[in-house]
Target: Tetrapeptide transporter OPT1/isp4
Amino acid sequence: MADMLQSAGRAQHDTTHPAKDEESGIERARHSESGSDAAAADKLHDLDVVHAIEDELASNDVEEENSPIEEVRAAVPNTDNPDMPCSTFRAWFLGVLFVLLGSGVNIFFSLRYPSVQITSLVAQLVSYPCGCFLAKTLPIGRFNPDRNFNVKEHTLITIMANLAFPYATMANVIEMQKGFMGIDTPAGYIFMSILSTQFLGLAMAGLCSEIFVEPSEMYWPSTLANMALFRTLHSRENAVADGWAMSRYRYFIYIFAASFIWYWGPGFLFTALSNFTWICWIAPNNVVVNQLFGQISGLGWSPITFDWAQVAYNNSPLVSPFTAQVNVIVGWAFFYAVLPCIIYYKNIWYTGYFRMNANAAYDNTGASYNTTRVIGADGVFDYEAYRAYSPIFLPTSFAICFGVAFALLTCLPIYTILFHGHQIRAAVTGQNTYDVHQRLMRRYRDVPKWWYAVILVICFAVAVGSAERYRTGFPVWAIFLAFVLAGGFVIPMSIVMATSNQNVNMLWALGEIIAGFLLRGRPIVNSSFKYLIYTGVSQAMAFGADMKLASYSKVPKRITFACQMLAALLSTVVQTGVLTWALNHIHGICTPDQADRFTCPQGRTNFVASVVWGGVGPARLYAVGQRRCGV
Model:
């Protein structure tokens, strides 16, 4: 098997640049006019346009050019072979297979605590030997064009996995309704709810691709990790650097093996290495020490860990720019290391009576807030029951988290205008300057903008149809407002993600606040409004990152569009089926003592938040004259 993989990699490296006597992309397009090669005709422009593009690329000597971003130059080759097969049976077969498995497994285990999640990196790694196996065993013909599983096919599979593996966050609303409120959630309702949020992201990413995908400054650091792995697996180049002659592939194998062995330490043999709070071991009964240095219920002043999963919990530091990491550290030091101490030890907002670091709400006895006592049988907030029970108290870190979210959502548009306004203006006026990768992509047909506009209209129609058909109480004007807010923030947040690898999508806070004021007393509508905004922008960033990944690998744009559509649709169908079955057939699901720990942790958190913001409402928490109005 190892020999087969290495020979496949060498063959792939040899086919990166076609021989001079091989048929060019233009010739393939010309032959396609007689019906001999429809696939090539579909991916290329009209012949006159192709000639013009080829002439421009030849005159600019693109092989001598490169990206202005150093990290991109190191990971992404500045060449393209338009004759390399991409839309092949083996690519689509493996892509669909991983979509079905990954989306189904992840949505199923999202209902459990502790959860098990498979990342798309698994698909990227496993699909390589699978693709090489299919290329070597399938007979040469329509389903197997050659014996080389190439990087474009590999990219197509990875894009599908990137979109399908993360479970749909709209599932949290479904879990809340079925598991905690006892409200029926038919399969049609689940499908329409998930579909509208997933495809909203595709529509926004496609409509705004000239702003946060195509410019060279928008290089999406997270995609460079994928590109480096592609290059490791598919290339056998071995340039000597500083006396080292080890190949990328061998280096990868060594690191992979070492990581596998090392993880047994913090992951199984000595789990204390994961949260290495050695100061708390010295004084386990000292409350202040545990509040300051504890990593679970404290502020984590001793952020030492030997577990890579902990290091990369939010973002891998290996793919984030150094300046972004410095900003994160400074922000953490002020907002989550110093400020909580001031608020907590001065007992501001009565925070001194509760845990310093928690994401729960409390009542006036210090116990977790019993949200079921203030929600009626119809799922509507009961104000009289709320008055008879207790006001809501939030712990220090939770209250600060909302304050940071409010500040971020205020300053983000201003930052975007000041620092990236000229880039947006250039994109809107058609004056963008593109690097070699985008110019190479001009060989392939663009996806018409009206395709994305149609998807956007369909998403809105599906969202409205779901609300009206299943009588959720979600007004049409509120759905329209959610679409407008998502569209207003998608560009600023995507630009930050594309340049710094920092996800600043805190629209859950904005959604809860706006819905809490405008749709007071409706917890379900509050959650639906929140996730329509939040998930729409999150999906737009995911689709945008994969569009950039396709650009780096020179996958034709229309093939990228097709694989994104298919992955989003299939994952929606699979997650609908798994959720419907699980919520109706797992005994005691979403209860704290469920035998197999299917306690619906995300649904429980969302249920509490929906009661706080959709039931009690922000007017009783943050309005002028209220306890936390200073936030």
User: Anything to note?
Assistant: The longest helix spans residues 396-428. Residues 2-152 form one domain. The two ends are 60 Å apart (CA to CA). The CA atoms of residues 332 and 338 lie 9 Å apart.
